[in-house]
Predict the structure of GDSL esterase/lipase.
Amino acid sequence: MTRETPSKLIFLCLSLLAYSSTCTSHPSVTKKGAEIKGLFVFGSSLVDNGNNNFLQNSLAKADYLPYGVDFPLGPSGRFTNGKNVIDLLGDHLKLPSLIPAFADPNTKGSKIVHGVNFASGASGILDDTGFLAGHVINLNQQIRNFEKVTLPELEAQLGHRSRVVLPNYLFVVGTGGNDYSFNYFLMKSSINVSLEAFTANLTSSLSQQIKKLYNLGARKFVLMSVNPIGCSPMAAANRPRHKGCVQGLNKAAHLFNAHLKSLVDVIKPHLPDSNFVFVNSYKIIRDIIRNPISKGFKDARRPCCEVASTNGVLCKRGGQACVDRSSHVFFDGLHPTEAVNIQIAAKAYESDLKSEVYPTNVKNLSNVYV
């Protein structure tokens, strides 16, 4: 070995800095992508892991059979027969445990290091959405719970400031449908606001809420679309003579989703180092409903469980559920079965179709190193 060799090695290391882990231990070089440590989840019943169980005066609960009939822990507060989209995304990301509900008194200490679920069934983007269901946790309060309670404890658990650790988490936001079903369309006769103006206000509010999470340290966002609410058994029950989906409700969902997808492009330049994935669950479910047999389903219209007549949404407490649950699109009057959630989560994670995930999928998002 000549005397020049060490200097040549140094030069070579500097030249290949971006491609080699031999010469340095800097994380931006050694790390191929980034490991997702957990999920922080905000939204409504489609992503609620059981927060409403702990709300004394809430009518929007799924803590009884037949909910959870196929879930390993039985009824847990998830509004479906088995796992919801959050559980299944966690499986794809190989997270070591289910994401705990914030309102559970046991959600503290080491249990929060892989994320916390703040979502609340019947809640919405707007503070007054869900008032008919009694006590629910609106999106603004969910974010305050994250900021005031979970964040300080997470920093204590991990020994780092939030801005250091939060880029390693995905922030999933799934909300908006209730703002139409249980707010705008219920109050339409008493408020003089067009659908377009209501949707613009909804999107603007959500944009500010996303910016709030960003300012707290969030960098990777998964935004779930509103489902085709006009195709739900609840919508059909309210118009028994009407065949097919209720287009007024679907128009609202479609309009919101178009705004939400556009928001991804509009907001990103204003939030340095942020990355977004828009998951078009509307299209995924709509495709199943239009051609259920080809997607492995037999019934895209009726609820699998016996729905309580009082609200047309939730399963009757202790009521019957269909035997072949994987062949049904809807478990109750509004929420999809685990079988549908499996398809949504799989496509969210690895679909290459921009009509389903935009501008990329969750797998690619999880590998982005911030």
In short: The chain has one domain: 38-364. The chain has twelve helices and eight strands. The first strand starts at residue 38 and ends at 43.
